[in-house]
Amino acid sequence: MAKQPENEDSNEFLFLDNDFKNSGVAQADWSTKKMVWIPSEREGFQSASIKEETGNEVVVELDNGKKVTVSKDEIQKMNPPKYNKVEDMAALTCLNEASVLHNIRERYFSGLIYTYSGLFCVVVNPYKLLPIYSEKITEMYKGKKRHEVPPHIYAVTDNAYRNMLQEREDQSILCTGESGAGKTENTKKVIQYLAVVASSHKGKRHQIAVRTYKLESYSALFNFNFL
């Protein structure tokens, strides 16, 4: 888990609130509950607790106290509270569609737009400027391993940059998503980060390599009509 610095305005957009992590809900004894996800027309999925099982049907109780009967095929297991808003969804005990959507949504509503899913970094467009791309934030990610800092496009970029220098092989970062998802903005952040990191190295070879990387990035953006 990444260590949280003090007195940073960006903390709430990068780090999970300690009050949440240490709350009674987060530390609840999960073994005494049978919580699941069931389909919801409005929310996609909603939480429920299993009350009775008969054959292929299950009686569950919703958060509002209402009881409904659903097929066993419709329910998806829910993760223990300690996995709420987890930084890397590969760590989820129950890895299913409902749990993935719930984790991304809960992190997003908490101001945490970046979430890892194994080797991937999932980003939800906040449609507003966040204070998580400053010079201080850039310095925080330089030379750090992924698990040492919160999920961020800078962590992905720094990892690719270090691999390029150490392995002397080309590296690729692909920003993909639907229209308006933030592909162009995140690609810009990649290029900006590389420019800052490369300028801190004295070796001309490093700077030339990154300049070439930047030019190829702009070329790719142009070819895909992102510029």
From TrEMBL:
Pfam families from the UniProt entry: Myosin_head (PF00063), Myosin_N (PF02736)
Keyword check for ATP-binding: yes
InterPro entries per record: Kinesin_motor_dom_sf, Myosin_head_motor_dom-like, Myosin_S1_N, P-loop_NTPase, SH3_Myosin
Myosin N-terminal SH3-like domain segment(s): 31-80
SMART domains per record: MYSc (SM00242)
Transmembrane segments: none
Entry GO MF terms: actin filament binding; ATP binding; calmodulin binding; microfilament motor activity
Protein residues bound to ATP: G177, E178, S179, G180, A181, G182, K183, T184
Alphabetical GO biological process terms: actin filament organization; system development
GO cellular component: cytoplasm; membrane; myosin complex
Key words of the record: Actin-binding, ATP-binding, Calmodulin-binding, Coiled coil, Motor protein, Myosin, Nucleotide-binding
Organism from which the protein derives: Sinocyclocheilus rhinocerous
Entry protein name: Myosin, heavy chain 11b, smooth muscle
Lineage: Eukaryota, Metazoa, Chordata, Craniata, Vertebrata
PANTHER family (UniProt xref): MYOSIN, MYOSIN-11
Domain Myosin motor span(s) in chain numbering: 84-227
Keyword Nucleotide-binding applies: yes
SUPFAM superfamilies given in the database record: Myosin S1 fragment, N-terminal domain, P-loop containing nucleoside triphosphate hydrolases
Family the UniProt entry places it in: Belongs to the TRAFAC class myosin-kinesin ATPase superfamily. Myosin family.
